[in-house]
Amino acid sequence: MRKEQREANRAHLKRWPLIITTSILLIIAIATTAMLANTQNVDVDATVVNVRQGPGLSYGVEGQVTHGTQLAIIDKQNSWYKVRMPGNRVGWVASWLVNNNEATTGAAKSGVTTAAVNVRASSTESASKLGSLKAGAAIKVVYQEGAWSQIIYDGTAAWISSKYVKLSGTSTTVSTSDQAVASASAAAAANLTVKTKRTANLRHTAGINGSVAKELPANTSLAVVGESGDWYEVKTSDGTTGYIASWVVSTPSNGASTATSTSLAEATIVLDPGHGGSDTGALSTTDKYEKTYTLKTAEAIRSALAAAGANVVMTRSNDSFVSLAKRPKIAHQVKADAFISIHFDSTPDTNEASGHTVYYYSSKKDISLARNLNVALKGVGTPSRGIEFGDFEVLRDNKQPSVLLEMGYINDDTDFSKIQTTAYQQKVANDVVNGLRSYFESGSR
Ligand SMILES: [Zn+2]
């Protein structure tokens, strides 16, 4: 690059920070407005609740609140609420430790109009007119923004000039459906866009049971046109509309944070089919390879987890050799919420032992995962040998919660007659999903 050109480029670069900062502030202001339109309060249910710097147990504790304290919710991420505490401090609390009854009703303020007033679709004089209200009409004010008050009008969210609003000083509630209307209109008015954090499903209806309309690659921008519970109703650039889970997208205000997943659907799970390629693993009495069944079983688990909404990463997805050292590294790279290695045991002589074992290495980070999976696998079809300490490299070098499952003895004919069936593989898969679900929901990580 020539010198003048370099300097010209540098001059360009100097202007960027200001533009970026301004844009970010603007976006945050818009996003915050959308959230405030839907202000909800919660009461602290537990005796003492830690307030953390971010939405997850891995974030530092910045304070505590005690039973009965009222907190205003200003954001929600995974199962965490971003709250404003007395004294105007902001932090995150786990949603399961606070009483969120009120979050389903939504508070509004009662009031009356002081004069005949036009009702508009958004908060400007140029917005289309939806109708009008007579002086003295009773109104429920959901939100006030500058000179405008948002009300529910004829089943939709609408705006009137705050000049003609007299609040009575008493609070009221708006129904869940009206609240959804209000928040949807706020999102649309704010031109809220979100971006997929990973490959994500666009569904025909809100909820993970909704049929998939389209699979979206990571970093797809979507225009938010509405909200339904924890789901956004969105529109893609090609005009396809559908629903997407709010936790698989980042919004301008939460995109920077790396959330700790608090339920299976939000989790990244690394599955590690043992052996592969030149490393065949142990042999059945009929000389079948362990590596074949570790992969088949992991594939079954992968499908079951994907159906449950989890993000699944495989250390290998075909018959290739992957070193032991590389396997935990994959877990680190993707910040796995759980790493599960799949193997089948063997004994020096055939037909000497039977059953499955759940191995852990760390009694701190791994044991809860091991316990939950062990319980879930109890009825899988091979006898349970319980949980055991195991000094395996994939566990020892793993910084993420990890376990190694020996799902039966491959050189035991009774065990192998099960191991090789898709029915057993499917049973393992379902049990692992259930075990992970209880692990993530127990909150005892
Ligand atoms: Zn093995």
TrEMBL record:
SUPFAM superfamilies: Zn-dependent exopeptidases. GO terms for molecular function: N-acetylmuramoyl-L-alanine amidase activity. The chain crosses the membrane at residues 16-37. Coiled coil: none annotated. One of its GO terms (biological process) is cell wall organization. GO terms for cellular component: outer membrane-bounded periplasmic space. Residues 37-101, 189-252 form the SH3b domain. Keywords: Cell wall biogenesis/degradation, Hydrolase, Membrane, Transmembrane, Transmembrane helix. Pfam families: Amidase_3, SH3_3. PANTHER family: CELL WALL AMIDASE LYTH-RELATED, N-ACETYLMURAMOYL-L-ALANINE AMIDASE. This is N-acetylmuramoyl-L-alanine amidase. It comes from Lacticaseibacillus pantheris DSM 15945 = JCM 12539 = NBRC 106106.
